[in-house]
Give the backbone structure.
Amino acid sequence: MVYKPKGRRFYKVKFKFQGQTIHRSTQATNAKTAHSIEEQIRAELVRGNWGIFEKKSAPTLADFLKHDFLPYTESKFQTTPKILAYYRDGVKRLTKSELGSLRLDQITDQHARQFEAGSSKLKPTTINCGLRTVRRSLYLACDWESLIGSRRSLWQRASGRGTAC
């Protein structure tokens, strides 16, 4: 089945193969191309080429922040230097902390609490800056498919949406 989610640019395919549900983005913007991509995917699966679905491992938080998140914030917030400085400060604190060495798919609310406890000498607003930066980067990682399996619900449950106070 080829469909275009509401409000999205690209078509997606969803079908069952040997009892397993295959759900992929086609990166195609028109239905005809999306249907041909679906046929290609099905043909590869019939040939036994499961390598097309190998999951790439999630990057570490520090790598994602440096290579993806910071360039995004620098382009998005060019006209608002205070927001840009805010996110830069959050990235600086996070890359120096233990959170920076964790892969994106490993970060839980427990790690956020450890970050909070390790930064207890700082002001609550400074701690919240780091926590908000983590939350925003995880949202973007989910949207950009750098993070397989959404952490949104886990992070939102993290006592008070992941804020220190």
Summary: The mean pLDDT is 83. Residues 62 and 158 are 21 Å apart (CA to CA). The two ends are 46 Å apart (CA to CA).
